[in-house]
């Protein structure tokens, strides 16, 4: 019932905001005014409930702050516990985070740190795909291909060496410059 009332009041509020007049009883107007007062207090960093906005960017910001600042968070030991911090500007304001990062390009993207040992700050964060994130972990093995540093799996794709072969060579102690030699 409460959800239905809020939904109806939201529609009425939109009509009023957009300047479209509709007949409304004094009782409904009183409820609308009460809802508008409540609406003013329910804003998340300038984006209101009426806009339906509590999107993935906001959830990413909340998760980032929690895992870096809350010792009780399940991921804290991998972030805040390792000394990874959120820059002061982002920590203080979701709006600052939004201004720097913007909307994520697609539902396939999530927040990623370019340097996995670096802090959450504008110069070290991006919206990345799952594949990009999978290639950007503390366990990632890097290889040099024509002067470009890429993950070993990508390097193998580029030069045509089976990934398992390169891993075998690495584990056997071969020099990194020999991991990607053609198979004979």
What topology does this entry show?
Elements (H helix, E strand, L loop, with lengths): L1 H16 L8 H16 L1 E2 L2 E2 L7 H14 L18 H5 L1 H8 L7 E5 L11 E5 H5 L7 E4 L2 E4 H8 L3 H9 L13
Antiparallel strand pairs: 1-2, 3-4, 5-6
Helix pairs in contact: 1-2
Commentary on this structure:
- The chain is α+β, with helices and mostly antiparallel strands.
- The protein folds into three domains: 2-48, no CATH class; 56-134, no CATH class; 142-178, no CATH class.
- It has helices at residues 2-17, 26-41, 56-69, 88-92, 94-101, 130-134, 152-159, 163-171; strands spanning 43-44, 47-48, 109-113, 125-129, 142-145, 148-151.
- The strands form three sheets. The protein has a two-stranded antiparallel sheet.
- A hairpin with a 2-residue loop joins strand 5 and strand 6 (148-151).
- Helix 1 packs across helix 2 (26-41).
- The chain starts with a helix and ends in a 13-residue tail after the last helix.
Brief characterization of the structure:
With 184 residues, this protein is an alpha+beta fold. It has helices at residues 2-17, 26-41, 56-69, 88-92, 94-101, 130-134, 152-159, 163-171, and strands at residues 43-44, 47-48, 109-113, 125-129, 142-145, 148-151. Residues 48-52 have low confidence and may be disordered.
